[in-house]
Fold each of these.
Amino acid sequence: MTSEPMTAAQKVAHPADDAAVAPIAKAKPVKAVRAMIDRYTWYEYAAIYAGIALFLFFVLAPFIEGFMVSLKPLSRLFSSPYSFWPKEGSLTAYFTMWESVPGFWRYIVNSLFISTTATVIVLIMVVPAAYAFARFPFPGRGALLGAFLAVNMFSGAVLLIPLFRLMRQMGLLNTYWAMIVPGAAFLIPSAIWLLRTYMMRIPRELDEAAWVDGASRLYTLRRVILPIAMPGIAVVAITTFIGAYAQQFIFALTFNSKTEFMPLAIGLFAYFGRQEVVWNELMAASFVGIAPVLILIVFLQRYLVAGLTAGAVKT
Amino acid sequence: MTGTRSASIFAFALLAPALIYIIAIVAYPLVDTINLSFTNAALRPAYDWVGWANYQKIFGANFGEVIVRTFVWTFFSVSIKMIIGTCGAVLLNAAVPGRALFRILTMPPWVVPMAIGIFMWGWMYNGQFGMISGLLQNFGIVDGPVAWLAYGNTAFWATIVTDVWIGVPLVTIYLLAAMQSIPRDLYEAAWTDGAGRFYRFRRITLPMIIPAMVTMSLLSLIATFNSFDIIWILTRGGPSGSTTTMIIDTYKTAIGSYKYGEGAARAVMICIFLSLFCLAYFRVVGKINTGERA
């Protein structure tokens, strides 16, 4: 009856579940157990926080160091001995970076444009496809879904040569499309997987009710399924956008040489001077460049984690 | 619903855009790669069929060395990612105040543009002024500056560390989700029976997340094998080839020296390995559950 796939974890869970039934019957009141089970001794607290601190230090060290660098004057930066805290620190680099590379704002706009367009393309492709996979038992469905997922294993780097030729044939080299078109292709498989999982949770009875009322299949998709699937589509849109924003390197490096179309990742190389890298401005520019994503994460963090893990744990 | 045949047709119509897109941008280039690998294609438009010459050429050179290096690099990167990611997930799964914030703080390496994180590492590896060499000197662990990216051995490990750094958030959040989907009843029952925290971890958490760990290892293996940006930005495969993995090697041959045919042959070799990993993945994860029972 249910179309929900059983996760690997659930499969493992069942035998253990049965074994657990008996003790639960004689368990203390549930609330008390919940409170007790999460109670830590002081040394457990200390160990957990120390571990988290170490873990987060590894994860955040480059950002912390990058931020410190962005505050240091260049002369201070290239001096020994090393000091972590900026002496004579200032926000100067955040102002001078716009003068050193006057077109910098353009790179951010390009990055946002490329990611947004790629996301729109992915959504147009993925919404109908995910619905088809979630609802219709057409022949070859498993194989086709597998084929889509197999796309995930190729990175752009492996297919770079023919893609380069393809872009040249289509006359797309040195345009936005040379970065958008291949980029979107590699974002489609995970998006299908994510949205399919979401759509399978929509009760089938809704489709059937619409069918009984004489609605066409397309009408059902547009007027019944789409509105309900909106939260799922939003999650897919956010993750796709972030993926597109994060992974603009190899296609931009290879398929575009025009400064005016360069995304952030390539544009930052403008701070690599002939003699030396203007590190403090490079770091300042990096923080300006990641600001849009950081804002997204802070506001949409819950959806992001929900979306990514929904797709992930089901595999 | 009535009409399975018209339903199938409708389903294929829905699939068509995505399918055509993937065929044009992924499947056709894949076939073209195989085709090109038997030619001497280069910058000039005309090229000839050369049979297995490209393959003979690459195996006559130091290709075996590149393959071994790629596997060693990938092995260490994936293993360290899994170890740190599992530790991170266990820590973030603890019910301590502030954990919601800690989870957000885990995500940046994964969601910011990769190139930016890599630039930051590039600075940290700087021998004269970088953080790692600087702190090690300040604490008296090393005597003089260590330029991590200047020597083959240290550059090899430096690129692994950066790759681990980028991969850890996904592993952590994925395993954390797996841990949180474990029914709490299990823990409560075990607790009632007097099982300690470590025992509960070993007998409940660990067995329950093993499937997720295997899945993640394989996904991570595929992604790591394909890793390009990190090595390219940090070392371009150097110094003297010590960080040249198969992907970098292919890029240098094809895009750097315009030897499309030979580059394609190298790309085909990568595809063969990736297909093996992919087969392992589908095997382990089991046949894809398409809800056939419905």
Note: Chain A touches chain B through 137 residues (CB under 8 Å).
Amino acid sequence: MQTLKRNLLAVPILVWLGLLVGIPLVFVFVLSFLSRDSLGTIVFQFTLENWQRVLDPIYLRVFRNSLLLAFLTGLVTIVVGYPVAYITANLEPKKRALSIGLIMLPFWISSLLRTYGWMILLGNAGIVNNILLGLGIIDKPLPMMYKFGTTLVGTAYMLIPFAIVAIFNSVDKLDRSLLEASYDLGANRRQTFFNITLPLTLPGIAGGFTLVFIPALGLFYVSDLLGGGNTIFLGNLINTQVTRGRNRPLAAAFSIAMIIVVLLVISIYGKVAKDDAEGLFL
Amino acid sequence: MRGCRRWQLNEHFDRQYLLNYTNFTTTIVAQAGKGLFVKQPLLSLVNINKFFGDFHVLKDISFDIRQGEFLTLLGPSGCGKTTLLRCIAGLESVHSGDILLNGSSIRGMAPNKRNVNTVFQNYALFPHLNVYDNIAYGPRVKKSMGEGELKGKVADVLELVQMLGYEKRMPHQLSGGQRQRIAIARALINEPAILLLDEPLGALDLKLRKHMQTELSQLQKKTGTTFVYVTHDQEEALNMSDRIVVMDQGVVQQLGSPRDIYNNPVNYFVTTFIGDRNILQVKVVETSETHAQVQFGEHVVTIRNSGQHRIEEGQTAILAVHMDKMRVSCEQTANAFVGEVLSVHYAGSQIRIRIKVGNKSITVVEYQKIDCDCEAGDQVYVTWEDHGATLLPPEDGWAEGEV
């Protein structure tokens, strides 16, 4: 009786998920096995051609680029975000609310606009170059735009709040008496951090990494605007295939492939975080 | 710093003394010198003051802790006992005063540099490390021994707390009592000069708590380690301690042996905090060296007067008598209150009898078979053991309405 009631309670969410996630996903999956004519209209004819192209060495390089970008973005956001999260969690309540507010503030502005902001900052006639030229540190503008690194900086900037919040949660949950016990037993601050704080906030790190890694894999406008299309990532590829390439079946195949990669990452995260999965579900 | 200087002065004085008199009184002086050091307490608290914001938590606390003793800080919650413990551990700073360990100041020293260890209230076992690694944590971070020696040491302390064989368990796989033992083992492996215990039995159920009381005091005797134990439970304190420091509102109210604290409370707070007492306002009729005659309503009785308080004839005083040191008798007895039984309540091993004496209701707790098989409405005589009664002068905080 109890379980039946509980199962009934799950019905609305299952309907919701089924309509908005399940069915579209099935559409995309089916689409990835269909053909198209020269104008890009879908033809209901089974083919494995799209999947063959996904595994083509040229496109595998796109996968490699994207995975590398997503991995490095995760790494950068963790390394940069950890101190911010750690310090914020140790602030007194008022300052802590202010700090979290400031971390969240950029979300109020369109991410596209913020990406343009980076162009204004890093461009050849950008603010950074102008200042450096004005100070006489450089003679000619440093070319900072349209590189892999530029895309990395932009993506990391866009996604770092996710990492900070996830780590913040795990640092905040950390029992202070464990740190006191560590000092009491003779450990200094560095030993306490590496022996106690870091291992116990690992679920937060894994959660933050996953939360950054997944969107980093699919973001396309950042690399379009800051990378100038010099390096092709999965997001750009799918975007191009849908719009200019008029090849929706191929885009569908890439999308499904990307979902598989994401599922792999989540399963690794699940192993690291074990039963402590709160880090991911803020 | 003050402590440091004092110690140096002592040493300096000692050396000078020895140099000047070596030729003729070497032995005597050496013994006198030795006496100076042997008498030195293990830990001295000197006028400790501590504030949390405007709140004065510790007010001018001064006392010594002796080598090898089981000392308990006892007081109601918020009295500053845990804060004082944390000051000794180095987890809290003090605003003024000094803490001397073996004669040298440890004030301002980081907790990891102090040779004291704490057993935390919630045990604070590291959840990601197993029992072995938890216990090995201290020696490992201090790099005080190799892994081989460490293995033997961990086994030693595990045996001490009767937890051999649990090395591979994780903290969440242990019961409350087991975690408690591991927390103690983790502290003891460092061979601290003082083991600080912050209400370690608070989270355990009554039966286990009683059992652990016995075990803790046995452990303390076996290891010879000085224990400083914080609790709000007077029974725990009275059972285990060599000496008790009773604290209230950041002030040491009384320091003494359990027997002393129980029978000779120095003020109204200790009188009401330790044991269950009947408290009556009386008028002092006559005093002698050891006793005083006091009047309560129409009764005039003789009460022991320890002489530690100024009790003056003609004044009012507070008479406090342990409920369990009073007896009910059916026959008329000298030096007794006459009263009417209000109720008789059987509560397991004890019988609680409420009796109306004059305009006050008092409670008598009997453990054995009562001499007088009384019922509500009967007239009885109430007597008491001489040392169960205490006479105190009235003081601030005393209010007739309270009792």
Note: Residues 10 and 130 of chain A are 58 Å apart (CA to CA).
